[in-house]
Design brief:
about 450 residues; Rossmann fold; GMP Synthetase, Chain A, domain 3; 2 domains; twelve-stranded mixed sheet; 13 helices; about 25% strand
Length: about 450
């Protein structure tokens, strides 16, 4: 049945039929992700000894040589790009500097030449399009299974068997039937997963979500940082009684700040584990039991340019290859080793998209972490905030507040914190609103940097 027909049937069906459709779709995705390659790699990963850094580096260098050879043979774009370059000189990671860096625009405008396989033979993904330019990414079916095996093996090492736990997932999927606006979830029986809509989370609907979570009692919560944080903030502020304790929470897609982590862990009384990848298929950076982020050498190469931006080469992108691809997120490494036993290098933090900052009055950058510190000092009357900047001379702050508690002194407190970070010359406009809309992806965006960088 064609996708358009399925969408029409789904939208006009009652909830119980929608649950069946979601589960059938889940079954088809399950077959894509969990085949023989998955089982082989999953067993390999859960048994692997990661304690020898020398072994990991040697394996990484071999995978790099094999990957470059494959890409040069199968991608017309990279073959043309590397004309005149002696690829035999690339024997280890340090030799990658012989190759040019590829930008997002380079990739987007040359996709048909970048692809190594036809659409009908691939698993399709799409980048989020936060810059207004989404891309279709093709994965080989083997790479899809390898990536799933790696993620599941990571979770298995944290005590989570992916096939034996009930999962609550908060992502950008549009699953809600408009005729039943009070039921903000659908069920994927194939994967023991309840899909919760992030598009409908408001202060008015959060009690409905919490009531259902209390009834469902998930073992694991996955999804967008902003959605899980908003639920957690409500739980803490209203002293809500949760009747379950998840084994773990896994956040994705958005930058996890120390504020997010502390609020979520307090509300749900369990550990939050962060991980970084990307829709394009970047190498994995995952958090261990000791709370440290590790750059996983066996999934690819992460370089750092002079601006701190990640330049990635990913071994599981044979359908839409990434070699020295500037993904624009920023990474900060740290020295030392981890007591968890994993020898992979440590990452201090990832700052997320390049637009996750605003400008102060002197043209300096005020990061997401700095603005999280503003929120930490908020009076209890403030429920939600968003920072919007359209020019380097003005910042607008949207506030969702408890109108029974909010007063001018609260506004003065926030303004003082903003002045400290943005300077006295910055025009700061505060607006109280009923709700802050989510983006088309279902994410709530704390920062909206709309400034022309050339202005």
């Amino acid at each position: 049945m064609r996708k358009g027909v399925v969408d029409t049937v789904y939208k006009t069906s009652p909830v119980w039929i929608q649950n069946i459709i979601v589960s059938v779709y889940g079954y088809l995705r399950f077959k894509e992700r969990y085949g023989p390659v998955y089982r082989k790699k999953f067993n390999e990963y859960i048994r692997k000894d990661y304690s020898s850094l020398e072994t990991e580096i040697a394996e990484q260098n071999k995978s790099l040589r094999d990957f470059i050879q494959f890409v040069n043979q199968h991608s017309n774009y990279y073959r043309d790009l590397y004309k005149g370059i002696d690829l035999s000189k690339i024997k280890e990671v340090k030799d990658l500097k012989l190759l040019p860096v590829v930008t997002k625009e380079d990739l987007r405008s040359n996709l048909e030449k970048v692809y190594t396989l036809a659409e009908k033979d691939s698993n399709i993904g799409f980048t989020g399009g936060t810059t207004g330019k989404s891309m279709m990414v093709r994965f080989t079916r083997e790479d899809t299974q390898i990536r799933m095996a790696y993620l599941d093996a990571w979770k298995f090492g944290l005590g989570i068997d992916p096939f034996k736990v009930k999962k609550a997932t908060f992502s950008g999927r549009s699953v809600i039937h408009k005729r039943n606006p009070k039921k903000f979830w659908r069920h994927n029986y194939t994967y023991r997963q309840r899909l919760y809509s992030t598009f409908h989370i408001t202060q008015e609907t959060i009690p409905v979500y919490i009531k259902n979570l209390n009834k469902y009692k998930p073992d694991v919560i996955n999804g967008f940082v902003s959605a899980i944080y908003e639920l957690a903030e409500y739980i803490n502020r209203n002293s809500v009684d949760l009747r379950f304790t998840p084994k773990a929470i896994f956040t994705t897609s958005e930058t996890l700040t120390t504020l997010h982590r502390s609020v979520i862990e307090k509300a749900f009384r369990c550990k939050v584990y962060d991980q970084y990848a990307s829709a394009e298929g970047a190498p994995f950076i995952t958090e261990c039991k000791k709370g440290n982020l590790h750059y996983n050498l066996d999934t690819g190469v992460v370089e750092r340019n002079d601006n701190g931006e990640m330049i990635v080469t990913s071994f599981t992108t044979r359908g839409t290859p990434l070699i020295r691809y500037n993904i624009a997120d920023k990474v900060f490494f740290k020295a030392g080793s981890c007591s968890c036993g994993n020898s992979h290098p440590l990452v201090e933090r990832i700052e997320g998209r390049a637009v996750d900052f605003l400008y102060n009055s002197e043209g300096g950058k005020v990061s997401l972490s700095h603005l999280a510190d503003v929120i930490k000092g908020n009076p209890n009357s403030v429920i939600k905030m968003q920072f919007i900047q359209k020019s380097k001379k003005e910042v607008t702050v949207l506030l969702v507040v408890d109108k029974t508690l909010y007063n001018k002194s609260d506004e003065s407190t926030i303004l003082s914190e903003m002045r400290y970070r943005f300077g006295e010359e910055m025009k700061i406009t505060m607006k109280v609103v009923d709700e802050i809309p989510r983006e088309g992806s279902g994410k709530y965006q704390l920062i909206k940097n709309l400034v022309d960088p050339n202005s």
